[in-house]
Amino acid sequence: MKIYTKTGDDGNTGLQGNYRISKSHPRIISYGTVDEANASLGVVLTNSLDDDVRQILTEIQNDLFLVGADLSNPNLNDVKNRVSLDMIKKLEQYVDKFELELPPLKNFILPGGDTAAAQLHYVRTVVRRAESQTVQLSEKDEINSNCIKYLNRLSDLFFVMGRLINKRKNREDIPWKI
């Protein structure tokens, strides 16, 4: 099988269920940004990371494929929608667990510190953009609403994990100075 099909040369692309839509459609923008977040997460994983962090980030990469698949599915009633409340709850559990290791925030912090932490803060911003674009999509088309919730929790988790990486690598969070 060749990687190029030429079926998108007219500016359209295929979705699940043999639907074709413009490559500029909010659905394509939404799941494309989820794909961007996943690729950016791959960059984070090139760093030296603790095993628990690596395992969770790899799990999230797999979950992001599910988010993208659900967003590429124009048939909301299709049984293929897989992003679930259990996936969201798992992210919340990770946030709660890691926050126990961290000192309370006393002020806003700037993205930075260790390279992996800074990269994770960057991925967080991509996830926030994916969330906004998914909300825009939901205003136009029906989607699995768990995708929005998942992306919202994921950006929270990445914020906490960025702080966690800095703490574990003995790097200080960078306080925002007015």
UniProtKB/TrEMBL annotation:
Query: What cellular component terms from Gene Ontology apply here?
Result: cytoplasm
Instruction: Pinpoint the Cobalamin adenosyltransferase-like domain residues.
Output: 3-164
Q: Which UniProt keywords apply?
A: ATP-binding, Cytoplasm, Nucleotide-binding, Transferase
A Pfam family in this protein? Cob_adeno_trans
> Localized where?
Cytoplasm
Electron transport listed as a keyword: no
InterPro entries attached here? CblAdoTrfase-like (IPR016030), CblAdoTrfase-like_sf (IPR036451), PduO-typ (IPR029499)
One annotated GO molecular function is: corrinoid adenosyltransferase activity
Please give the name of this protein. ATP--cobalamin adenosyltransferase
Species of the source: Candidatus Nitrosopumilus sediminis
